[in-house]
Design goal:
This protein is mostly beta strands and 1023 residues long. Helix content is 8%, strand content 44%. It is built from seven helices and 71 strands. The strands form 14 sheets. Strands 19, 21, 24, 28, 30, 32, 33, 34 and 37 form a nine-stranded mixed β-sheet that branches. Strands 44, 45, 47, 49, 50, 53 and 54 form a seven-stranded antiparallel β-sheet that branches. Strands 39, 42, 56, 57, 59 and 60 form a six-stranded mixed β-sheet that branches. Strand 44 and strand 45 form a beta hairpin. The two termini are 38 Å apart.
């Protein structure tokens, strides 16, 4: 008896444990209901709505009270039209509010933004509760068969399809009124499914209404697909068909379509053919030819990217490359909706389609970095693939030069020519592309992380084998430090880091343009790195090997103004000669004229007899007369020793690229005494002169003129970009571009001395993690000009490297970061609807912002996702700009989505403060500001740009952040269906019985189960 009691206790305990576990599982289904309460102090009530999984649903409000209802984002922006229910005597009211699911995103790392707020504003003086429930009732659509009729409810137009096979599914929508851009399809795991839509020809001649609208999407995974199909129609006539794909085998030709004059040609029918290609390895390429003999079909390729599907065009042509996007099955759809047209006389004319396809698999051959090779692609081969192994994160520079009139085409996706296989996805790194129109060259500068990269070349379908020269250069990335500087100080150039941009050594002869390899600097971006800048400088002194080139003067003539005559000293001023050149004939207007076939910017004068009066001026020929140099021309007279020119040996210099020197033009003509220019002998000569405006004794003389420096000008486009290491998976490195800037058509001459750009856009401020980063630069459209023989200059190639100096820095002393814990405060009892005019300083947090440009207040909430209120008061200062910054943990997969969708998590809240600002404008000071928002992360930064009103007084910022303690509604939290719960309970009972039996058996070895009585009773019943 004791053993039986023990067994019974164990049995009951097992059932209890299983039941408790089932209850926990049931509870894990989530709280899909909530209550919103209005009070007199808070007439606008809210509830938090959190999306735990991709969801298409509606919110339903029910109450005995009237009200206004909508659905808001984290800043209170209405996502739906406000539904208003007036005061009524009805006992029960029901107000559905449809979600706008275009505002929802389904990436795990972006789940913080999948938070919304259901709001209720009371319409009467009676306050109370409003029940909120989530409603999602899909219509199950069967495959094939006749059309189904659906009557959309006021809640949601949601259709559900169970896909039992992978392939293409086609939804026929008859003449439904809908906007394709509003349709959303979610896969079995909540992934976003891309689709395309079209329609068959009108069913009436001229302006008929089609009954053949349809949507096509790819199902890569089996399971349930949900289609959100909003429409204003009262009835949806819909049918779903499955299009089974035909497998494409390599090297097997497919030929589809009717021949001319056949019955099927003259009486065409709609066709939509589906094929599948198995991309087994991204280390290989898949070349194809797709030839459309006649017709104009829709050609699409469907890819599975895990979190979403993607559709790209299937391009017609010979020797094409299947877009390398992902490993796995790829679907190709060749759709012909326009299979006929209506002729003017009302006769249907056929428009069938006929095409051929052939696929081939191509293995990539190894290319050794820092080498050059010739790519040969035969017509029969169709394409050639190469792979390059990168050992360390580097700048990979590639060059392609056409050989011959017909050369291979380079395969690219969105101008990105190489990719890396990462977890079965083709990752295309950031690429800067330059195309040389003169030499048939293409240059690419690529930031490449360690790994193997692939590229391909396609035959252009000429009659012969095609050739291309392919070379690579791998530039190691140097390290640099992030410098600190005061706002009003400059960084010494000794702290800059030099970057060398080497020229392409193998440029074809005769090519005017010269390109450079790119380069990069690696640094660490700290957690407070939103306040940063960089300076990039090209120094003439650091590039003397390019700019320091001497020129020989072609003309040296003395002009005697009294005699109106020229005296030629050209031979005397040549290098090595020691002829004394008089600079005046001792009368007013006398001048010495110097000319050169090329523009120059400096020369050294050795003075024998110095001048004794300030009567000498330097001028240049501007096309129709002489113009005196000014300081805006960069003019410096090194022979001027404080009293007058031509007093000491020195350098005369000017800058032909600045001021009015653009007017410096060559003279080509005979002797002209009226304008005081000599005969140039048919040469194009740039002229300057030193003219006397008085009389002088002794006459200054020059022993020699040396170091005549040719003026050289560089034109270039400068691309700079910053990339973050954003991938923490399995210690992998993945650099993603987060900021890029381009300066187009920049000019720099050796007369300028230095060319500098400063980027102070603070565009990296959304980094809130300690991350490795790379600052990269590349030059595009690079041309070096000299100015021999024409005003525009002659372009010639770069024959050496360029040296740049780079400083990455952040200013100190103009920003302050302060931590503030909302948990120290009481619950919110204020609201913007009450027009807050006084900040309750008992609970405020004060910041000394004197002499600061930016203040960053790191706010930690008491309740994450709760609705919150910022109350702000500035004393003796002005807040000229405000942002809320939501820190984000970036991953490679989501960074672009976050940047493109949420502005990197940075939200401008100037307008919000203005809206709730008691004094009526943000630029005021010593007033109160207030705004509300949803606190959707575990930390935010309140960024305030501050200006002090009276410098000698303290600038104080008082901040109070409170939260509303709202109820939360969870939508789509993982749970178990009823059948699973029943199975668990039954299984638990069975396990409990087995466990109990073994325990009893152990204590009673001779025990056995006698089923004879049960079987005998069953036999009697059967009889």
């Amino acid at each position: 008896m004791k053993n039986k009691t023990k067994i019974l206790a164990i049995f009951l305990l097992s059932i209890t444990i299983i039941s408790m576990g089932s209850s926990v599982l049931v509870f894990a289904l989530g709280n899909d209901k909530g209550v919103i309460t209005n009070t007199e102090s808070l007439p606008k009530g809210r509830a938090i709505v959190r999306l735990e999984s991709p969801t298409i649903a509606s919110l339903e409000f029910s109450s005995t009270l009237p009200g206004q209802f909508n659905y808001e984002d984290v800043f209170g922006n209405a996502l739906t039209a406000t539904d208003t229910v007036p005061d009524t005597s009805e006992a029960e009211l029901f107000y559905p509010v449809r979600q706008d699911i275009s505002n929802q995103w389904y990436y795990d790392d972006l789940n913080q933004f999948n938070t919304f707020y259901a709001t209720v504003e009371n319409n009467s003086e009676v306050f109370g509760d409003y029940d909120v429930t989530v409603n999602s009732k899909p219509y199950d659509l069967r495959l094939g068969g006749d059309d189904s009729i659906i009557y959309p409810t006021d809640l949601v137009s949601l259709i559900q399809i169970k896909a039992r096979k992978s392939g293409i599914y086609q939804l026929w929508l008859s003449d439904l009124t809908y906007t394709p851009g509003n349709v959303i399809i979610l896969g079995p795991n909540g992934e976003n499914i891309e689709f395309y839509n079209d329609q068959l020809p009108d069913n009436q001649r001229l302006s008929g209404v089609t009954l053949g609208k349809y949507i096509c999407f790819a199902a890569f995974a089996t399971g349930t697909y949900r289609i959100y199909l909003p429409t204003s129609d009262a009835k949806i006539k819909i049918r779903c068909e499955y299009l089974n794909p035909q497998t494409i085998n390599m090297n097997s030709e497919i030929d589809v379509g009717p021949d001319p004059f056949s019955t099927s040609f003259m009486n065409p029918e709609y066709s939509c053919n589906v094929y599948s290609v198995k991309v087994r390895d991204l280390n290989k390429f898949y070349s194809y030819f797709y030839d459309i003999e006649y017709g104009a079909p829709i050609d699409k390729i469907f890819y599975n990217l895990g979190e979403q599907t993607q559709i790209v065009n299937f391009n017609e042509g010979f020797n094409q490359i299947l877009p390398m996007i992902t490993r796995g099955k790829v679907f190709i759809v060749i759709d012909n909706p326009d299979y006929f047209i209506w002729a003017d006389d009302g006769i249907q004319e056929s428009k069938p389609v006929k095409y051929s396809m052939l696929f081939k698999e191509i293995s990539a051959e190894k290319h050794k970095p820092n080498t050059k090779e010739t790519i040969a692609v035969s017509k029969s081969e169709g394409a050639v693939a190469k792979k390059i192994k990168i050992e360390d994160t580097s700048i990979l520079c590639l060059e392609h030069v056409d050989i011959g009139s017909n050369s291979p085409n380079l395969y690219s996706r969105a101008n990105k020519i190489v990719f890396k296989n990462r977890d079965g996805i083709a990752y295309y790194p950031e690429t800067q592309e330059v195309i040389d129109p003169y030499g048939g060259m293409s240059y690419y500068v690529i930031l490449a992380e360690p790994g193997t990269y692939f590229c391909a070349f396609m035959h252009s379908n000429s009659e012969t084998t095609e050739y291309m020269e392919f070379s690579s250069k791998v530039i190691p990335i140097s390290n640099t430090n992030v410098l600190s500087k005061d706002a009003d100080e400059n960084i010494p150039e000794s702290q800059f880091t030099d970057i060398t941009l080497e020229d392409w050594k193998n440029m074809p002869e005769g090519t005017d343009q010269g390109q450079c390899y790119g380069n990069g600097l690696e640094f660490t971006a700290g957690t407070d790195f939103w306040n940063w800048e960089y300076n990039l400088t090209l120094n003439a002194e650091d590039n003397a090997h390019i700019f320091d080139e001497n020129e020989v003067l072609d003309l040296g003539i003395m002009w005697d103004d009294q005699l109106n005559d020229f005296f030629n000293y050209t031979e005397g001023i040549q290098p090595g000669n020691d002829t004394l050149v008089p600079f005046t004939a001792q009368t007013y207007g006398d001048a010495f004229i110097i000319g050169c076939e090329e523009k120059w910017y400096s020369m050294d004068l050795e003075i024998l007899s110095p001048a004794t009066a300030n009567i000498y001026y330097w001028q240049y020929w501007q096309g129709s007369g002489w113009e005196t140099f000014s300081t805006s021309d960069g003019f410096l007279d090194g022979t001027h020793n404080g009293t007058h020119s031509l007093e000491i040996n020195g350098t005369i210099s000017w800058d032909p690229g600045t001021g009015d020197m653009n007017n410096w033009a060559f003279y080509n003509g005979g002797e002209n005494t009226g304008t005081e220019v000599p005969d140039t002998g048919g040469r194009d000569l740039y002229l300057i002169r030193c003219i006397c405006y008085g009389s002088s004794f002794p006459i200054p003389e020059v022993r020699q003129i040396t170091n005549v420096k040719k003026y050289i000008r560089i034109r270039f486009d400068l691309d700079t970009w910053v990339s973050f290491d954003t991938d923490d998976r399995d210690r992998k490195v993945a650099y993603c571009e987060v900021d890029d800037t381009t300066w187009n058509n920049q000019y720099f001459g050796n007369g300028q001395g230095k060319w500098t750009v400063v980027d102070n856009t603070n565009s990296m401020r959304f980094n809130f993690e300690e991350r490795g980063a790379i600052f990269s630069i590349a030059l595009a459209d690079l041309i070096i000009y000299d100015f021999k023989g024409n005003a525009a200059g002659n372009a010639h190639r770069l024959n050496d490297s360029l040296t740049w100096s780079v400083a990455i820095y952040r200013t100190v002393g103009n920003s302050q970061i302060i931590n503030y814990d909302v948990g120290e405060n009481v619950a919110t009892k204020y609201s913007k609807d009450q027009n807050l005019t006084e900040l309750p300083t008992d609970y405020s947090f004060s910041v000394n912002a004197s002499e600061l440009n930016y203040v960053y207040i790191g706010i930690t909430p008491r309740n994450t996702y709760d609705w919150s209120q910022i109350n702000l008061k500035v004393v003796n200062g002005t807040v000229t700009g405000a942002n809320l910054i939501f820190p984000a943990h970036y991953s490679y997969d989501t960074i672009n989505t976050l940047i493109n969708t949420y502005g990197s998590g940075i939200f401008d809240i100037d307008s919000d403060f203005v809206e709730y600002y008691a004094s009526g404008g943000l630029p005021e000071f010593d007033y109160n500001m207030s705004m509300e928002f949803g606190f959707v992360s575990d930390l935010i930064y309140l960024e305030l740009a501050v200006t002090t009103a009276v410098p000698e007084n303290l600038t104080l910022i008082h901040v109070e952040v409170n939260q509303f303690d709202l109820n939360m509604i969870i939508i789509g939290e993982p749970g178990f269906p009823v059948w699973a719960i029943v199975l668990i309970v039954v299984g638990g009972i069975a396990v409990a019985c087995v466990v109990g039996w073994f325990i009893y058996k152990k204590n009673n070895p001779g025990a056995r189960i006698d089923l004879s009585k049960i079987t005998s009773k069953l036999k009697l019943k059967r009889r």
